[in-house]
Design brief:
heterodimer, A: mainly alpha, two-stranded antiparallel ribbon, 4 strands, about 70% helix, globular, B: mainly alpha, two-stranded antiparallel sheet, 12 helices
Chain lengths: ~350, ~300
């Protein structure tokens, strides 16, 4: 009744091609952005910014990167945290070793460095797929973690491999308060998310989906396998790299390679399974779900049982809950929360007269 | 080059590789019969060993604790068949693989929630002391592990080729639909094969546990079984053994001879890189079946 497509006539190509053809969607997105950019900076407190919103945004970006690779191009990766680490360390070294390096350029170049590393580890995907690719991306994960810890050059000879991110300065303004770091992260994530949304509906995105659905058939109709798969690896790693750089610069400030271990890779993978494979929205929904669930669990346990549940039991409960949710989502709704949202919208189109 | 030192490293590596093979064996069993790469195998190793060691610490005998652990693994097999495999029938294999990652997390939570997260020592009465064999030192415990692995492989080979259930398992592995069509109950077969994998996990868990202590890091050791599988091929039991030996030997040799040049601790990633290089040359593994795909 409220949400519908009827009466929607496209008079120009621009109208036909826009990202959100339905007016209500455009209004909703504009509203969400307005809330995120204007209302939240006024309403939120420092705890919310630095403990919940910033990691949520950064992990959304990483999940978006993985979703491009796994959800759109169909190449499974268990090494996304490794690529985040590359981004973080590359940004740190660029800022450290290149005098006068602007911050945003360092982030961008760190993304490019990560893309090159991702290209290299994506090479085996030309001959193998599925579980096999899982193993080669595990190789990337372990190798990167080892190399960053082992070679002191990467962490500027810090004995424990910890890097302390430089101050974030853009045009003389220092981003140090939580709210300014939040706004910087939000801006970068928004720009990259819009870019991703456009990328996946372009020719490149369609080629990725064709490869995902059946690679041999895609090759037969003339999609170049080499370029398409490697591009997916490069773009995905670029996103993960920038997420890693933000993780070090905007979220933690100082970070060691072990912050990007296999557990983090799984966390990002879970985000796209629960949020929705092959959906930009899904990356955000999944990241929100996975970052908020432990917090809700904690708060819920404290208000309900007021400290009678031990912390270790709680963290085990969290593991169990995640595991069960993964199986549940794969069995009941393989396309995750994004698909549920889609179904909801379709129901809304007919409401209140479903027949 | 010191050849007796080389031989010692090589033999040490080969015997450590036997332990990887034991874990890889569990993967192969499940992959053969259900086409699922069971990521939770490592957690199953940990889970089984944890049950065994906890019951022993409560004063149970080894046999009783072992029987209880096997019972728990069979129960787990029923659970997996009912709540993981059955709802995911006809889904792409990658969905099943992801589901087993979920299963791994679930199992980690359950085992640590119920039995505690502290490390347990496990003593099974085989001393881990080296003795002289010609010019090289060999660990008695490693030899015992190798013997157990050999016995297990022989048992499984007989089970797969001679018994009625074994033939049914192979039929299911070849073609699910054809097996269903000739009246093989798929659900039961899955329960049996997951129980068998649980049993293998228990054996591997006891051996690994008495070497390193029963603790959470066992699940990471089990990840090393993945490169083993790639080298040996996903569907081959002899492949799992040979792959394990290759991985064990090569990582020890790399650590000893390459480590001083490019940095120690490279045995953490060396098997994976080795497997990746191998994949580029021979994606089906040493003993795997070549798959031909058509549009």
């Amino acid at each position: 009744m409220i949400y519908r497509e009827a009466g929607r006539f496209h008079a120009t190509y621009e109208e036909d091609q826009r990202i959100f053809p339905i007016r209500l969607d455009r209004v909703a997105i504009a509203g969400i952005l307005a809330v995120a950019f204007i209302a939240i900076p006024f309403a939120g407190n420092d705890y919310w910014f630095s403990a919940i919103l910033i990691p949520f945004l950064i992990l959304s970006l990483a999940a978006l990167g993985l979703n491009i690779l796994t959800g759109y191009a169909g190449q499974l990766s268990l090494g996304s945290a490794g690529f985040m680490a590359v981004g973080a360390f590359a940004a740190f070294n660029l800022m450290l070793r290149v005098p006068g390096m602007p911050l945003l350029a360092a982030f961008f170049l760190a993304g490019l460095v990560t893309a090159v590393v991702g290209l290299f580890f994506g090479l085996p995907s030309l001959r193998i797929k599925g579980f096999y690719l899982a193993v080669t991306t595990l190789a990337a994960q372990f190798f990167i973690e080892w190399a960053l810890t082992k070679f002191p050059w990467f962490s500027n000879r810090n004995p424990s491999g910890v890097i302390s991110a430089q101050k974030m300065v853009i045009f003389g303004y220092v981003f140090s308060s939580p709210v300014s770091r939040y706004l910087l992260t939000l801006s970068i994530v928004t720009i990259l998310a819009v870019a991703a949304k456009n990328l996946v509906r372009s020719r490149i995105g369609r080629a990725w989906m064709a490869v995902r659905d059946m690679d041999i058939a895609a090759e037969v109709i003339g999609i170049p396998m080499l370029r398409t798969k490697l591009l997916a690896f490069a773009v995905s790693s670029f996103y993960c790299g920038i997420a890693g750089a933000l993780w070090a610069f905007a979220y933690l400030g100082s970070v060691e390679p072990q912050a990007f271990d296999l557990t983090r890779s799984f966390q990002i993978l879970f985000m796209i399974i629960i949020g929705g494979m092959g959906s930009v929205l899904g990356a955000f929904l999944g990241a929100g779900f996975i970052t908020l669930l432990p917090i809700l669990l904690n708060v819920g346990a404290h208000t309900l049982f007021s400290g009678r549940i031990s912390q270790s039991l709680l963290s085990n409960l969290e593991l169990m809950l995640f595991g069960a949710l993964i199986i549940l989502f794969l069995a009941l709704e393989p396309y995750g929360l994004a698909r549920l949202w889609q179904i909801g919208k379709e129901k809304l189109r007919l409401w209140p007269f479903p027949h | 080059m010191d050849w007796s030192f080389f031989a010692e490293v090589l033999i040490g590596g080969l015997l450590a590789g036997v332990m990887y093979s034991l874990v890889a064996l569990g993967f192969v069993l499940i992959y053969k019969a259900s086409g699922v790469l069971n990521f939770a195998q490592g957690t199953m190793v940990f889970f089984a060993a944890l049950i065994f060691v906890s019951l022993r610490e409560k004063g149970w005998g080894s046999v009783g604790a072992g029987a209880a652990a096997i019972a728990a693994m069979i129960l787990l097999a029923f659970f997996v068949e009912r709540f993981v495999l059955r709802p995911l029938v006809n889904q792409p294999p990658i969905a099943l693989f992801l589901a087993t990652i979920g299963l791994a997390f679930l199992l980690e939570g359950v085992s640590q929630g119920l039995l505690g997260a502290q490390a347990h020592g496990l003593e099974i009465g085989i001393p881990d002391v080296p003795f002289q064999l010609g010019a090289v030192n060999v660990s008695q415990f490693d030899l015992f592990a190798a013997g157990v692995a050999g016995l297990l492989v022989a048992l499984l080979a007989i089970f797969f080729s001679k018994t009625r259930i074994g033939r049914a398992l192979r039929a299911v592995g070849d073609d699910h639909q054809a097996a269903l069509a000739v009246g093989i109950p798929l659900g039961q077969i899955w329960v049996i094969v997951w129980s068998a994998a649980g049993f293998v996990a228990l054996v591997a868990g006891i051996l690994w546990g008495s070497r390193t202590g029963v603790q959470f890091s066992l699940t990471f050791i089990a990840l090393k079984a993945l490169p083993v599988l790639i080298l040996g091929g996903f569907t081959s039991i002899p492949g799992a053994i040979v792959g394990g030996l290759v991985v064990g030997a090569s990582e020890k040799l790399a650590e000893v001879y390459l480590g001083p040049h490019i940095g120690s601790g490279l045995e953490n990633w060396f098997p994976y890189v080795l497997a990746t290089l191998f994949l580029l040359v021979r994606p089906e593994g040493l003993f795997g079946e070549r798959r031909i795909e058509r549009v």
